[in-house]
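Below is how a single chain appears once it has passed through the pipeline. First comes the sequence as given, then the structure the pipeline wrote out for it. We keep one example in the README because the format questions we get most often are answered faster by looking than by reading.
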Amino acid sequence: MRRHEPGAIAAPPVSGLALGAYLELIKPRITTLVVLTTATGLWLAPERPSFRTAFFTVLGTMLVVAAANVLNMYLERDTDALMRRTMHRPLPAGRIHPASALRFGILLAAVSVPLLTFLVGPLPGLLAAFALVTYAFVYTPLKRRTTASLLVGAIPGAIPPLIGWTAATGRIDPPGLLLGETSLLARDCWFSRTSPAEIARPASTWCSTRPPSSPSP
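Resulting structure:
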């Protein structure tokens, strides 16, 4: 008998409902904000990139961030099913089959990294690949084990502005690194003020420190 994973159901036909679920997987709000930080790197760089370079930098970054978010949600589908704030996401809610989500994330990664590497430059492509791997396969598993994961998560969080900077300049230098760190702090401050639930934290810590909800009358 086939073993079903959490949230595993028959893959739904491609419809407005299914497309909406796939859109949720990429976390559009976070993806948009990260892309804006990349555009900031392009804008503040001392050298002006061509329209073509700027366009493919923004497009490639959007796709690689989407890939990281999809893979993150795929890897966290078990713990997401245990938490009230995440149990209605597409995978724990059973709106998308885990295998379909995994294929979607791999497809996004397979398109985005080569796009940045060959249409923008090797350095932006390398930075994007490093951020993707660090976020999805280092930071995400560590979230369940230690609060030190937040330090690891700061690395891919600071890279998007640097992708924009290196796309324009072709090099990593102190002003670009400073821009990455400044952008990370500004982004986290914005999230902490507007949507505290979006700030990443280890699942075990979140579950143990979240006050229990009052029982329904």
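Residues 116 and 125 are 5 Å apart (CA to CA).

See the next section for the split statistics.
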